[in-house]
Amino acid sequence: MSSYPGSKINQLLQAWPAGTVAVATWLEKRGVYQQLVHEYEKTSWLRRVGQGAYAKAGDKVEWTGGLYALQEHLKLPVHVGGKTALQMQGYAHFLPLGKTRRYLCSRFLT
Fold first, then answer.
1. Which domain holds residue 98?
2. How many Cα atoms occupy the beta-carbon half-sphere of 76 within 13 Å?
3. Among candidates 50, 51, 58, which has minimal Cα distance to 16?
4. Which of the residues 19, 32, 89, 103 could staple to 82 if both were Cys, CB 3.0 to 4.6 A apart?
């Protein structure tokens, strides 16, 4: 595999924000089609994290990285809501103690 500065994998890795998920359509817009994605998986540049969803090898991806892909790559109207939104705004000290849950909302909900 080529690793000079202008190679496709280097361009991809530079455009890909750390800690986020990339979806197949976003990769295709950058000229990385399924066959090349498969090659990048075999050579450990990428790892599959779901159907049509990938992370950079060695990159720690949390739920916010997945949310980024939903919002930015797939343009879905999903945002953080409920207790999670309050916690992210610094109001966690008003929330009850216990197991942390994440809440996502869609503008399509009525």
1. 77-110
2. 15
3. 58
4. 103
**Domain co-membership, 71 together with 84:** no
pLDDT digits (tens, 9 = 90+) for 51-97: 999 999 999 999 999 999 999 999 998 888 877 888 788 776 665 66
Same structural domain, 82 and 65: no
Q: What sign does the dihedral 33-59-47-88 (CA atoms) show?
A: negative
Nearest to 73 by CA among 52, 88, 45, 103: 52
Task: Identify which of 27, 99, 21, 91 has the alpha carbon closest to the alpha carbon of residue 62.
Answer: 21
The one-letter amino acid at 17:
P
d(CA 103, CA 13) in angstroms, rounded, equals 30
Q: What is the CATH number of the domain that holds 46?
A: 1.10.10
Do 37 and 91 share a domain, yes or no?
A: no
| 12 close to 24: Cβ distance less than 8 angstroms | no
Q: What is the pLDDT of residues 16-31, one digit of tens each?
A: 999 999 999 999 999 9
